[in-house]
Amino acid sequence: MILRKFARDILSCLPVLLGFLTIHSALAAAYIVPSASMEPTLMIGDQIGVVVPSYGLSTANLPFGHALKPRDSSGGRLFGHLPRRGDVVVFRAPANLHQTWIKRVIGLPGDRIALVQGHVVLNGTELAWKDMGPAREESRRGIWLPAERYDETLPGNVHHNILKLSQDGELDNIAPFTVPAGHLFVMGDNRDNSADSRVSVADGGVGLLPVWNLQGQARAILWSWRDITRTALIL
């Protein structure tokens, strides 16, 4: 039954997979996840399919886009529109424009954000967590640490899983602030092992992400070396 279900899932996703493998790179691309920052959603080594024009296009999508960053990087997108909260996005890392990083969008321009003991407070409402039980984090290849898995709910009843290694991490408490125009607040699903918008660019993190940096939306896991049953999983 499990094998039959897996085969059925593969067949149902086959058009999407073929699209990612055959469409010109101006429309779609594939990336390999290099780190643990998006666990448990994405594992180290996962190959993911990305729809490039999901949020319009900017010079960040060009091969030499790192050299073409506009002075005002909060805009400058052709047919641009904002992601939705919960979207998994790839982008040029503000700390190193040669690198492509991946995180989840939590806050949009104008949102009021705070963190209290690890919980995100979005526009005055704490995002609900449901404890899903013990899990493991592969912090580096072959190095596993105990963690706890939670289901987090964003506005619009958007659910995703997160990992917590501790209940009092150094990034678990952030004073309230407002996301400025043309920027996004992004986080890794592995909340205690992600240099995301909680970490400044000067310290090697994302900081508040300019929309110019967006390169597309991650839509599917094309292949997973860690767990073959996650292959063809739509994000």
Automatic annotation (TrEMBL):
Catalyzed chemical reaction(s): Cleavage of hydrophobic, N-terminal signal or leader sequences from secreted and periplasmic proteins
PANTHER family: CHLOROPLAST PROCESSING PEPTIDASE, SIGNAL PEPTIDASE I
PROSITE patterns hit by this protein: SPASE_I_1 (PS00501), SPASE_I_2 (PS00760), SPASE_I_3 (PS00761)
Native organism: Gluconobacter potus
Enzyme Commission number(s) from the entry: 3.4.21.89
Name of the protein in question: Signal peptidase I
Location (main, coarse): membrane
Superkingdom of origin: Bacteria
Membrane topology: Single-pass type II membrane protein
Pfam families linked: Peptidase_S26
Keyword Lyase found: no
Keywords, alphabetical: Hydrolase, Protease
Peptidase S26 domain: residues covered: 10-223
Keyword Hydrolase: yes
Similarity field: Belongs to the peptidase S26 family.
GO molecular function: signal peptidase activity
Subcellular location: Membrane
